[in-house]
Amino acid sequence: MPTNGFNKEALKLQFGLINHESRYLTAEAFGFKVNASASSMKKKQIWTLEQDDRDPQVVLLRSHLGRYLSSDNDGKITGGAEKPDSGCRFFIVPQSDGRWALQSEPYLRYFGGSADYLSCFAQVIGEPELWAVHLALHPQASLLSIARKRYAHLSASEEEMSVDSNIPWGVHSLVTLVYVEGKYSLKTCDSRFLSNDGKLVKENIPTTCFTLGLKAGKLAFKDCDGKYLTPMGPTGTLRSGRCSKPGKDELFDLEESHPQVVFQAANKRFVSVKQGVSISANQDVETDMETFQMEIDRESKKTMFRTNGGSYWTLVTHGEIQSTATEVQPNTMFDIEWRGQRVALKASNGKYVCTKKNGQLSAVSDSVGDDELFLMKLINRPMLILRGESGFVCHHKTSNTLDSNRSVYDIFTLLFNDGAYHIKSQCPLGRYVAPCVGGKFWYVSASGAVCSDGEQPEDFYLEFLEHGRVAIKTNGGKYVRGDQGGILTGDGGSADATSLWEY
């Protein structure tokens, strides 16, 4: 993990396992039975990888029910173990094509089969014992090199990805994983793909497709020639090296990519830490000094703002806001009030943050006027991927509407417009969608459905309400939600589970 402790934990590896018949391993609630019958990845098909504390080569597979996959001496498979016992312990045996074989540690037999006929009794690995891995975590993240303890980012020349950043800061540090037909591509913030020679290209071609490997809970990316991505040279140029087996240099973690924003005050200047510890609206350009990371507390839903130096905004004496806090504490927490195209911030003293005549931010106001309103712009999501409680948002195959319950995702372009956002469709990768919607905009139809073929953009508003979740409000004041039929609609009355989206 990074020595600076900036992002504290890697994302838990969650995935679907696809058998030789293109069916997903499924954990049923009734009797904790396990089958391989599902054609797509929903909640019941998601498994979480856990490593054994004593032996890092041993893995445990936990279902959405919180129970563990287990095998007995006769090869019988169940998914009901409340606590991991010896039968829950498996080895991952990676294959040259990127698929996995799962071998029982105590019995040394291999797990496989189809439909309702699954067992862990095969003595050798055949097609029925091979499983493809489909990651279930949100595909936009920060990529950390285990060996270098540095993050990948689009280089200053914008000609390569470099692994030499101490912190994942700004839009250039966003990496999007694109999944097509069992392989993964790495997409930069400007919509180019990383090729195995280190170059960035506009098209997703064989040299940009990698199979996913796993070693000691870390990820490795194997190219079409059987070689692995690794940082090379003083700047850590990300490209395939010579190794056909992953060592520490070829291993990566995916870490959560928090939203990063810039604020513009009523004086039309950007809020900055350039002048020192004081937070002031006194800059005319956006740089790292004017960018702040939003970290939302899971329990209180209050927000902390972190600077690129790792410190937090905090309330000090006389209501002044400074960047002197090194740890989260009550004075570093703020409430955000969402007011259409602008936001208001309330500090822990119950007062609103205002911009003084000298640009200094202070929490001294009892009500909200022009000086208490800020334009807040999200800068590290030029590409938007949304996942709700039922699945990903994706173009419908035969109409201009959007599905909200798919196991595959489409990538949308997010365009800022004076406190609001326009959402534009991109051409889906590897799938046919009719009619073609590339370059068209989202809008809400008269029936309430969100459509993706608008010629003119329509305003939407982003509200960051929970850790890792955003609500999207329409111009009519309703929330975008996934309805029971799996269609994306713009008629939600409140921000509930159906209208909160991983982004």
Automatic annotation (TrEMBL):
GO term, biological process aspect, one: cell migration
Fascin-like domain span: 22-133, 144-254, 266-375, 390-503
UniProt entry keywords in alphabetical sequence: Actin-binding, Cytoplasm, Cytoskeleton
Organism superkingdom: Eukaryota
Subcellular localization, as worded in the UniProt entry: Cytoplasm, Cytoskeleton
Gene Ontology MF annotations: actin filament binding; protein-macromolecule adaptor activity
InterPro entries: Actin-crosslinking (IPR008999), Fascin (IPR010431), Fascin-like_dom (IPR022768), Fascin_metazoans (IPR024703)
GO cellular component entries: actin cytoskeleton; cytoplasm
Similarity remark: Belongs to the fascin family.
Protein name: Fascin
